[in-house]
Amino acid sequence: MEQRTVLQATYYAVFAALIALTLLTVGISFVNLGEWHSAVGLAIASAKAVLVALFFMHLLHSPRLIWLVVAAGFLWLAIMMGGMLADYMTRGWLTYG
Amino acid sequence: MATNSGLLAHQFDDLEQQRDTELLSMWLFLATELLIFGGLFTGYAAYRYAYPNDFEAASRHLNVLIGAINTIVLLSSSLTMALAVHATHKNRQNMLVACLALTALLGTVFMILKGFEYYIDYREDLVPWTSHFRAEEWINPGQIALFLLFYYVMTGLHAIHLTVGIGLMLWLTIQARRGRYSPEHYIPVEVIGLYWHFVDIVWIFLLPLLYLIGTHSPGDLHF
User: Fold this and answer.
1) B47 within 8 A of B146, measured Cβ to Cβ
2) Which of the four pLDDT bands, split at 50, 70 and 90, describes residue A52?
3) Do B49 and A57 touch (CB under 8 A)?
4) Residues 109-148, chain B, touching A (beta carbon < 8 A)
5) What confidence tens digit (pLDDT) does each residue in B58-99 have?
6) pLDDT 10s digits, B135-169
7) B36: closest CA among B174, B212, B158?
8) B218 CB-side CA count, 13 A
9) Residue B57 belongs to a domain with what CATH number?
10) Beta carbons within 8 Å of B49's beta carbon, 6+ residues apart
11) Which of A41, A63, A84 sits opposite B208 (nearest CB)?
12) Which sequence spans correspond to the domains of chain A?
């Protein structure tokens, strides 16, 4: 049974990056970014989520089938989000009466 | 293989096939979980798009300090969880038990802080449709109530998931103390770890979406 073990030092490095990104995202909320808070916050959160998934959840060394399940999960999420946004964000385009 | 044969369920050809199946099952479950939370995130996005200013105003009243501390607590628990899986691969039994117990403890610390935060929210009159909400002090109280509803439901569903996770973690700790896990048999630790990390990822997104949508000032850092 083959096992790809990640070095223990890798976990500590990933953890340090996650803490640094958390301090960054909280710190940046004290800077006036106007409407850009959410975009920056989501970008940093995505980076953290990718780190957790790739290293802590071992996605990096997981079979393609598991990558497919993850991709399918996000595909359905994108359909749900995309359908909703396509509705709400375009309502202003039409004038009634 | 004598010790391994007892671990192999009869529907599988070998341990590797069994392991891959169990991992796949957990990932499939997490894909459904993604859509449960995704529904809430989608609803949040729709109303955030409709009432950006009210959501920002309400967000500023949440306790950003506890939110940030809890993020660090939960990330630390993910580290100890990853180290627990690592310990099974290396067959380090004491480290495994310690890491699992520490993960459960950090999850509990998160829940205690979250409970304390809910109490502060209650004291600060942030509970819509009760006497602990000052509708007259908001420009659009209905929209403020809507944001707070998303806050309670999203953090509440997350807290329910974490409570389940803590229970599973205690069970794993007991099993690990009995020496049930080894480099050949580590899948329960790995799959429950996947669930734990997923719950952590949900919180990673809740932090910016609930707590960090406006500009803070140093005075916001208080309990």
Assistant:
1) yes
2) very high
3) no
4) none
5) 999 999 999 999 999 999 999 999 999 999 999 999 999 999
6) 999 999 999 999 999 999 999 999 999 999 999 99
7) B158
8) 0
9) 1.20.120.80
10) A85, A88, A89
11) A41
12) 1-62, 63-97
Which two three-digit tokens encode residue B46? Answer: 């729709």
* CA pair distance B158, B156, nearest whole angstrom: 5
A72 touches chain B (CB under 8 A): yes
Element containing residue A68 per DSSP (H, E): helix A64-88
Give chain B's length: 223
- Please give the DSSP secondary-structure letter assigned to residue B213: S
- Residue B25 forms part of a structural domain: no
Query: Which of B219, B215, B187, B204 shows the shortest CA–CA distance to B59?
Result: B215
- By CB atoms closer than 10 A (0-12, 13-18, 19+), residue A97 is exposed
The single-letter code of the amino acid at B172 is L
Of the candidates A26, A37, A84, the beta carbon closest to that of B46 is on A84
| B75 contacts B105 by C-beta, under 8 angstroms | no
Q: Which two tokens stand for residue B175?
A: 């099993």
Q: Is residue B205 part of a domain?
A: yes
Identify whether B33 is part of a domain: no
Could you tell me which of A21, A32, A55, A75 has the C-alpha nearest to residue B193? A55
Per 3-state DSSP, chain A is made up of helix, strand and coil in percentages (nearest 5) of 75, 0, 25
| Total residues found in chain A within this entry | 97
**Contact present, B181 and B88 (Cβ < 8 Å):** yes
